[in-house]
Design brief:
The structure holds 2 protein chains of 2 kinds. By secondary structure, chain A is an all-alpha fold. Chain A has one domain (about 1-45, about 50-280, about 340-405). Chain A contains 16 helices and 4 strands. In chain A, β3 and β4 (about 200) form a beta hairpin. The longest helix of chain A has about 35 residues, at about 10-45. By secondary structure, chain B is mainly α. Chain B has 2 domains: about 5-120, Up-down Bundle (Four Helix Bundle (Hemerythrin (Met), subunit A)), CATH 1.20.120.1200; about 120-165. Chain B has 6 helices and no strands. Classes of the chains: A mainly alpha, B mainly alpha.
């Protein structure tokens, strides 16, 4: 292994990073379903998955097995090739975009080769992310058409029209950030947000700079919710309206692939929102000597979570829970202890803040889903073309004005 | 054989296969999908030629917007499978060999004409360079082009409008 690593270091290191990130991504996709069901349930004053494993933690496993073993029905008259291609396209494009996301500033050593905490670091990273998003329309369009059925066709046409419309305002709302950062490279956009105004206010794009990008963030996040077909913009896949929309005729694993593709786009968009507007892996605490204790926040976080799990777990209802929950709690405490070691702590700072912010955005996604009613289709398109597009163009104009004025 | 040549051969094979399949497929949607494959492999070739911005824009505009329009139209018009008509024997037995000979002749002339297929670094390679060219040296044609596109959109809307009766 070491000889192979010495001969082709870039390839081996990249492969290892890809495998690790793919594994993490698939696990988080599975547990996103758990997270969503739990949060929506608690918003609706009920408990959500509770029985399958302690606190429903094994529910994704049960769902995954169910999807694997269900009967795979192909509708009569469906175009075979396109019918199978559509969910593949959706899932593979959605997962590909995770390759462009930087997770942290420091470099780690794999097999002696020093490598940054991202799979790639393209100079045009943001542009390629938007290219991948714009190709995502095909999954939806082809899925509905190839099902050879009325409701899926209607749902997919509406959904692709919606995605194409909101792509415009999504890409335009980001131009303000690009003007302030001066580069399309995601790592450079993050490093342009370093520094603290007045000593304590982080210079993230939403707060500081020539013009706080509040309008831009609003347009971006709303367009992103519409782009990923989530409530309140999910009329094309609403059960009551269209019988399930473009994924009606899909069963078992292909349906699961659509779902995973949707969650993967949600995760990608949340990562983008943190990178572009909220400083990515930058910590909200100033990096001065007075705030040196802030470096131990990751360790404290995991330590507290571990202790809470242990205390709660030993008095859990089922036997399995009484063993599993404290075990997870112990593992988290172990992780917290490892994070107090100086070397690991430095490496883990960036990813910790990044993942925390992404988690907050995912929570907002699910929160909005559980709270707001659905938009009617004409209201949906009106919002995209008549409100968000002019507002994002106005944001570009205002940001350029602000930059010119403050640079004089 | 360097990695660049190998990647170029793969991309070229995909592009040619896509183009041939575009003509030979019987269902319009399959032809549209083949055209998308051609567009994406051309974007890859732009990358090889040292124009990453062009590659990304090719995917965003061509594969992500123009072809979506094509696929939309095909889906809405509910175009079905084409029927094989077997019109003319002559086209089959003389046309195809003549076509191959024509292609070989074009390839010969191209190979003889230019000896240099390497990447020429130009001012338009980077995004910044391209932006400076577009907005400083060629700003007038750029604005005229956007004007033309606006006129085309207006014309399309007027032509496709339903008559108020």
């Amino acid at each position: 292994m070491n000889a192979l690593a010495a001969a082709h270091p870039i390839l081996v290191v990249a492969l290892i990073k890809i495998i690790v990130l793919l594994f993490l991504m698939m696990t988080s996709l599975a547990y996103m379903t758990w997270f969503e069901r739990k949060v929506v349930a608690h918003i609706q004053a009920r408990w959500g998955p509770y029985r399958v494993g302690p606190h429903g933690l094994l529910q994704p496993l049960a769902d995954g097995l169910k999807f694997l073993f269900k009967e795979d029905v192909t509708p009569a008259g469906a175009d075979r090739f396109v019918y199978v291609l559509a969910p593949f396209l959706t899932l593979s494009l959605a997962i590909t975009s995770i390759a462009l996301i930087p997770f942290g500033p420091k470099e780690i050593k794999i097999f002696g080769a020093s490598t940054p905490l991202a799979i790639t670091n393209l100079n045009l990273g943001l542009l390629f992310l938007f290219a991948i998003t714009s190709m995502g329309v095909y999954g939806v369009a082809l899925a509905g058409w190839s099902s050879n059925s009325k409701y899926p066709l209607l749902g997919s046409l509406r959904s692709s029209a919606q995605m194409v419309s909101y792509e415009l305002s999504m890409t335009l709302s980001v131009v303000g950030v690009l003007l302030m950062a001066g580069s399309l490279n995601l790592s450079e956009i993050i490093t342009a947000q370093q520094g603290f105004a007045w000593g304590f206010l982080p210079r993230w794009n939403i707060l500081a700079g020539p013009l706080p990008q509040i309008l831009g963030f609003f347009c971006f996040f709303v367009s992103a919710i519409a782009e990923t077909n989530r409530l309140p913009f999910d009329l094309p896949e609403a059960e009551g309206e269209l019988g399930g929309g473009f994924h009606t005729e899909y069963s078992s694993f292909k349906f699961a692939m659509f779902f995973m593709g949707e969650y993967a786009s949600m995760i990608t968009v949340s990562c983008l929102a943190t990178i572009l507007f909220f400083g990515g892996w930058l910590s909200p605490f100033p990096q001065t000597r007075a705030f040196g204790w802030a470096h131990y926040i990751p360790a404290a976080f995991f330590g507290l979570a571990g202790v809470a799990l242990i205390v709660h777990g030993v008095r859990y209802l089922t036997m399995f829970g009484r063993v599993a929950l404290p075990a997870i709690g112990l593992a988290l405490c172990g992780l917290a202890f490892l994070l107090t070691r100086h070397g690991l702590n430095e490496i883990a700072q960036g990813p910790f803040w990044f993942l925390l912010k992404v988690l907050i955005f995912l929570f907002i996604y699910v929160w909005v889903r559980g709270t707001l009613p659905r938009f009617r289709y004409d209201q949906l398109m009106a919002i995209g073309w008549k409100m968000l597009l002019p507002v994002s163009i106005a944001n570009v104009v205002l940001t350029s004005l602000a930059i010119v004025v403050t640079q004089r | 054989m360097s990695a660049e040549t190998a990647v170029f051969l793969v991309l070229a094979a995909v592009a040619v296969a896509g183009a041939v399949s575009l003509i030979l497929q019987r269902h319009p949607i399959h032809s549209a999908l083949s055209l998308i494959a051609v567009m994406v492999s051309i974007a890859g070739m732009y990358l090889l030629l040292g124009a990453p911005f062009m590659a990304a824009v090719q995917i965003i505009v061509y594969a992500g917007a123009v072809m979506v329009l094509f696929v939309f139209v095909i889906m809405l018009l509910n175009a079905g499978q084409e029927e094989r008509t077997n019109l003319s024997r002559m086209a089959h037995y003389i046309g195809v060999p003549l076509g191959v000979v024509f292609l070989a002749e074009v390839a010969l002339w191209v190979a003889r004409g230019s000896t240099q297929f390497t990447v020429q670094p130009s001012a338009a390679s980077s995004t910044r360079g391209l932006a400076e060219l577009l907005f400083k040296d060629y700003v007038f044609p750029f604005e005229l082009t956007s004007f033309l596109i606006l006129i085309a959109i207006l014309g399309a809307i007027v032509l496709a409008r339903r008559e108020e009766s």
